[in-house]
Amino acid sequence: MNSQIPSKQNFTKESLKKQFRLSEFLAEKIISSVAFLSIAIIFLIFIFVFKESLPIFSQGKESVKTEIQQSAASNDKPESYGGSETSAELQPESYGGVEKEELQPESYGGVEKEELQPESYGGVEKEDLQPESYGDVKKEDLQPESYGGVEVEPLVADDNSAESTEVKEEKSNSIWDSLLTADWVPVSENPRFGLLSLLIGTLKVTIISMLIAGPIAILAALYTACFASKRTKEIIKPIIEMLAAFPSVVIGFFALMVMATFFQDIFGYDSRLNAFVGGIAMALASIPIIYTISEDALSSVPKTYTEASLALGANKWQTAFYVVLPAATPGIFAALLLGVGRVFGETMIALMATGNAALMSANPFESVRTFAATIGAEMAETVFGETHYSVLFFIGSLLFIFSFGLNALAEFYVKGRLIKKFQGK
Amino acid sequence: MKDIKIQVNDLSLYYGEKKALKEITMQVPANKVTALIGPSGCGKSTFLRCINRMNDLIPSVSITGQMLVEGVDIYDKNVDVVNIRKKIGMVFQKSNPFPKSIYENVAYGSRINGINDKRELDEIVETSLRQAAIWDELKDRLGDSALGLSGGQQQRLCIARTLAVSPDIILMDEPASALDPISTSKIEELVHELKEQYTIIIVTHNMQQAARTSDHTAFFYMGELIEMGKTNDIFTKPEKKQTEDYITGRFG
Hints:
CATH architecture of the domain at 192-423 in chain A: Orthogonal Bundle
Largest sheet of chain B: 6 strands, mixed
Radius of gyration of chain A: 28 Å
Oligomer: heterodimer
InterPro entries (chain B): AAA+_ATPase, ABC_transporter-like_ATP-bd, ABC_transporter-like_CS, P-loop_NTPase, PstB-like
Number of strands of chain B: 10
Structural class of chain B: alpha/beta
Number of helices of chain A: 20
Radius of gyration of chain B: 18 Å
Shape of chain A: globular
Order of helices and strands of chain B: EEEHEEHEHHHHEHEHEEHH
CATH superfamily of the domain at 4-99 and 170-248 in chain B: P-loop containing nucleotide triphosphate hydrolases
Subcellular location (chain B): Cell inner membrane
Strand order of the largest sheet of chain B: 6-7-8-3-9-10
Keywords (chain B): ATP-binding, Cell membrane, Membrane, Nucleotide-binding, Phosphate transport, Translocase, Transport
Helix content of chain B: 25-40%
Strand order of the largest sheet of chain A: 1-2
Domain ABC transporter (chain B): 6-247
Largest sheet of chain A: 2 strands, antiparallel
CATH class of the domain at 192-423 in chain A: Mainly Alpha
CATH topology of the domain at 4-99 and 170-248 in chain B: Rossmann fold
Number of helices of chain B: 10
GO molecular function (chain B): ATP binding; ATP hydrolysis activity; phosphate transmembrane transporter activity
CATH topology of the domain at 192-423 in chain A: MetI-like fold
């Protein structure tokens, strides 16, 4: 019998010997290498972007120095806005408390009025530029648009500009002195690369759009997860998710043509394209992302929690808000982070709907210029290897570092605290 | 049987077309423990969930007949389901504490009823945990997550959570089925103590548990109530053949 049925295996050293399974080994290695490859690619992209921005740290010293000397020289020129206003009038309106000499180079120093427009769109001819950006811009028109109504200057702006100018005068050999100013004037005789106003603009748009998108998306997710019937859910969810597939150009175009006018009619602010309109448009782009992920998180909260809460005599609302929502906190938090990331890096909508004026202001109805939009608008027109080029790449690395830092902070610090707060230690 | 708490008249329940409970008529006495026994799928859990209308959550369910709790038909159109569930608490088969701290788990029921005074809540939490015989184990770690407790502690925490809203009736759906013998005996002791104040209905698969803890026993089979009576009578001299077969372990 033993000879005919060979299937019975004995526990000998031979039969238990370790086997090498090639296909399994290969499959495992391939999958893991693909995973590591994506990390490597992200890292390499960052290295490349950062490498391109390196010149501003080394060569930049001299060039910046000469720039600042130039600007110092140009300070003597009595240039303002073609004599339409004297500089004394201009000061209190725009940068109260800032010295006269500093104000002009910050805003339009050394620039003739023909040069004014190329500041925002370097390399574009004046005739081309005007209809695109400001319509028929006469110098009188321009001023109220960009500076009108900015009486509410944030103190920070004043401090920063004042501080940095001081530093500039004392030790003018560091690139940081140039980068930490408010004026972004990359294309002029006297280019200045102050990133602060861009930073303020980016943060402003991000905050506005998250304030709008966060509550809407989370409440919509809560509705579909806890209240809607199965049928309603099957209709709503795919439709909102379809919004995620909307090209951002289309959203930007819609914001530019329709929403801007609509909200201007309602609120009656001066500049048609501003942080508020841009923020709403970007909220449209980030709502589906936040919605989808928080809906998944809310739906995966075990039904037993819901049952337990209902059995205690809670109504549907109490169950949704005090049990389901807290239980899904980590997922919702991840969703919000992804939304912030989307808005932070959003280029097309920012380019089309935010006005692209690098202003330091806390007013949400002022035009802003974001980091991403700056790269998008100017990268094609810079000279390879020039300071402007390097600064744009530096902005790129900044974007990367910011979103990385934000995620790290959220992951390791805020999330833990949220969980502790809502779910006990 | 005096002091009837729940009177069930001809209650039938359908899952869509399928009739899961067939004309149940029974009486549940007040301040006693009533055990529901029967093989899996016989409808005892379904019947239990009828008592606090948890079956409302399943869209395909329809119910006919009467369920009178202290003379009020809880399936009447004018009855608010939220108020019913406040009076009729439920402990589930699988312990399901909320992913919150121990304190918040117990305080939850009071909070949703609008009690936010810290001292009052502290008192409710302590009383409930004491009633559930778990205060001494947990009093030093009220801020910890309830999910870190052992299975038996979680289940007793769930009982405490139910007690905190001070219901009249407590429904228990196999509360000890996933627990070790020591936790089980603790829960049984607890049931014994609680019946002074509450009417308890307990579903169990464990025959000894039913015999040990309950005053009355109802035997369900295939959606029908076969027999109901004093636990002693059911276990010693059942009237129906099916009951006897089930209790003696010949089927089920």
